[in-house]
Structure formats: C-alpha cells, structure tokens
Amino acid sequence: MHPLLTRPRQLGLYLLAWFPLAGILVYLLAEPGALSWGEATAITGPLCLAYAFVCLAAWYPCRATPLEKSGFVKLLLTHLTAAVLLSTLWLQMAKGLSVGLMRWGGFPGLDQRLAKYIPLLWVTGVLLYVLSVTFHYVLLAEQASREAQERALQARVLARDAELKALRAQVNPHFLFNCLHSVSALTSSDAGKAREMCILLADFLRTTLRLGGKETITLEEELALVRGYLAIEKVRFGVRLHMEEDVQKQTMETLIPPLLLQPLVENAIRHGIANLPEGGVIRLSAQEKANVVSIVVENSFDPDSPAPLKTGLGLDNIRQRLDTRYGLEASISVHTEGNRFQVSLRLPAQQNGAVA
Amino acid sequence: MSGMMDKKIRAVIVDDEELARQMLREFLSAHQEIEIAAECANGFEAVKTVTELKPDLIFLDIQMPKLDGFEVLELIGTDRAVVFVTAYDEYAIRAFDIHAVDYLLKPFSAERFETALQRAQQRLGGKLPAPTELSSSARSPAQPLERIVVRDGTRVFIIPVAKLDYAEAQDDYVALATEGKKHLKQQTISSLESALDPSRFLRIHRSYIVNLEKVTKVEPYSKDNHMVVLSNGTQLPVSRSGYARLREFLDQTRAK
Hints:
By secondary structure, chain A is of the alpha+beta class. In chain A, about 65% of the residues lie in helices and about 15% in strands.
C-alpha cells in the first residue's frame, strides 16, 4: 500500500500540488484558441485528478530501484518504460473523456479539436510522471532517514539498558559482604591495613560509578578499575591470587564500553581462583593487529568443580553490549583447555578523535 | 556447673579465607572452655580433619574450594554441632533443614557470635538430633544433583553424575559404579533416585538406578524379564515396572 493513502493530510497536500500543474495545462490547451477556457477546464480537471492517483504508482518502481543502489541505465529504462505506459494510458483517458464530454456535456466536436493537442498531452503526461518519480524519491529518502533515526534511538536505549543492568550486577553484594568481613577482621589485628582496605573499597566504588555513566572509556581507565578491584580481592585471598598483565602500549587508548573487563575478572575469581585451595593466576592481555584489538582474560580453574551457571549470564550480558555497540565488528568467545579458562574479546580499535 | 565443664569443647574452623579464620580465632580466644583443635582452608581438609579429630563443634564456610560446606557435612554426618559462617543468606533454610546450630552472616558482630556460641553449648549439653540423611533433605529439588561425593576413610571421591554408570542398593548403602570402580556410600537408593535428574537416570529395578546415556541395548532375559546392557558391557536386570518406565522413556525420546 502506498504510504500517502494511509495519511489523509499528506494526500491532501499532494493533490493540492496538482492544482498549479492543472492550471498550466488549462492555459496550454485554451490559449491557442482551439478550445474554449470552459472546455479546457472541463477536460483538464478530471484528467489531472485521475492522473494524480495514477502517478502514485511511481512509488513501486521507485522502491524497486533505489537511487543509490541502481545503475543509471536501469533507472532510465525503468522509469522511461513506466512513463510511456502511463502517459499512453492517460492519453486514452483524455480521448474517452473528450468523447464523453462531447456527447453528454454539450461540447460539440471536442474530440476533433482535442486531437491536435495529443502530442502535447502525451509529453505532459511523461513530464508529470517524471515529476512524480522525483517526488517519490524524496519521499523514500525521508522515510529511510526517519527509520534510521528510530533504529539509532533504539540502539541507544538498548545500550543504556545494558549498561544499567551491568551496573546493577556490577557491585556484587557478596563481594561487599566479604570485603566488610575482612575489614572487620583487620580492625583488631592490623588497623592500618583495615583503613587501607576501606580506602581501596571506596576508590573502587567511586570509580565504578564515575565510569559506569560514560558511553566509552579508554582501556587504560578500565584496567585501573580492574587493578583496584584485584587489590581488594588480594587482601581476601592473599597469596592465592596472582595477577599477570601483558598489555600492548598502543592499545591503552582504545575506547571500550565501561565495565567490560571487570565482570570478567570477577568471574575469574569467583569461579576460578576461589575454588582452588592453592589459588591461581589471572592473566590479562591486550593486543592490536590490523585495527582489531583482542583482549584476553585467562584464569586457572578446577575442572572438577561444577559448571557455574551464572558465568553464562555474565557473558551474555557482555555479548549483548558488544552487539548493540559494534554489531558484527566485535565478538566474544570462551575457551577451556585443561585447567585454564579463557575469555577472548575482539573489538574495533577505536580511539578518541578517530571515531565518528 | 564449672566443675562439670572440666572437658573442653573442641572446635574446628573451616574457611578458605585467612582473615575469616583469624576473626573466629580472635572471638574464640576469649573462651577458655573452647579449644581450637584445627583450622582447615578447604573441603577436603575439613573432611579429613573432622574424621580424624572428631571435634564437638565446627564453624563451617559454605563457598569453598573442592567441596562446599554442605558436601562436607554430607560426608562427615551431622552428629556434631555445626555453625555455618557465610556471606550468602540464600542457604539459611537448607542449613536449618539439616539442624545447623546457627547461621552467621558475614560480617557479624561479637555479640552475634556469642549468641551462636551459646546455642552451640546448649546443643552440646543436650541430646543431639539423630543424623539426618543429607543428600535428600539438604538439596533443593529444583536443582538436580551434578556430582556425588563419597568418603572412604579420610579419602574423598567426587563423582560427576555424567560419569556414573549405575547405582546398586546394598542394605543401607548404595554402590556407585563409575569408570570400572565401585564406591560405597551410606544412603538409600530411593533418596539418591530423588536427587538425580529424572531425565538422565532411571530406576529400572528395586535395586538399580541406571544412567540412560550409558545404556546401549535392552534385551529379553527370560520369559517375563528384560535386562539392559551398558556401553562397558555390564548387564543389569530390569523389573517389570522398570521395563514399563524404560519403554515410556524410549517412546518419549523417539517422539522427539
């Protein structure tokens, strides 16, 4: 269905635009003198009204041959064929109308007098169709841009939702409870350490709130957050927690959605290190190759411990956030080998100033 | 009263975090009547230590490496006072189901700890409830069993249910057949059946539960009876009602 037919207001405007065109045609027909002004108006009025609707058919070939995707020859052939066909149809309508007007409207000899305007009418029909094609391409472009705007808006809403969800899941209450318990234990044995832990925790929470509100942050900022988180967990886990970092310098400025890595590192502790009596290593690496940044979070885990259900949810959340932001340009994959668990992220190497 | 208390209460602390153990040590140091017999940093150690030392009182963390707190209790029984110490509140109902003395949420105050200790002392002074069967009462039915823990002396075996071939009832025990070995566990076959995932395990006989993934053939055995053959060649008898259940299962799988 043509979009104008469902919007009466716009249809009205469209028909209104035909009035001057019809006026010109009346002038062209009546001015040479063969037709009276009355005759010219009587024939042009219904003819233009009918053709206004016939020209709406241009919407279909216009939609089938989008300007930016179709070659010039194809465009020309399509619309020329349509123009000739519709104009011929229009001519037949004009002839029929003139006969009708002659018989029942009291305009004797009208069809003969109109006959010498046939070429003029035919050319006008073609031109009017071409005008309609132009109009429809404008209409389609407007529609496409509105759809693109809606999509962009939706993507933003989704991204915001994902961030919020991530934030909510972010500060795991059990992490806080365990932390506070450590602080509580330290107050009598090592007051200085207890104070240090309070400050670490406050820094971490503050950074989480600050970064979580941003659209993107640099990998360096995210790494600082992760280090703060690990410093707290180090107090709890002591020698059981080892950390290795292998981050290429040029990746530090890469822009990523905030709190992308912290949940991965939290999982690495919760489902990896926490299940190992002797502890283990968390390895974080980032490399750039051909404008793609690969970030890998790897940890030791106990293959005998039951598969954690919650990791899946955390990963789904990250996958969804990458999807809304980068589409097919980013990916996340999980890999286990022996007692190593590995999550790999690949995303475009966008940096400040280089992004749209 | 104090004359009667010449024997100290022996306690074991089980927590994988050093700071958490330190906290309990500190709170307990104010109590002369309690002696810390040992500290354990994971579930395996806890089973070994408790079996050897037979303490009166255990402070038990839930989230730990190797075995969680509930699995530890399943292996050592509940014939001693247990105080759970954890940051997670969602296990409280399970904990009281198995007659835990108390459930301390981290972080806790010295006063709250005193209350827990008083409860433990009252429990130890009175009669302890009979050991309950843990695997059935402590596990929520919504979550089928993923692994079975078995103790042999101080050694602990963890059997992922996927590796279990079949279970056979032997008086008060079940024999769990896995990878060519059999492990004995004090449990009834019915309680094991109810804990296992019914879409993966089937009671084919009064005395047998079979892992359906391991079944390769169902054969007639005598006029009225059938047997199943497992992938490792083991043959198990199928009772008449077991055969009906097996047929129903096979029909359902085929329908899919």
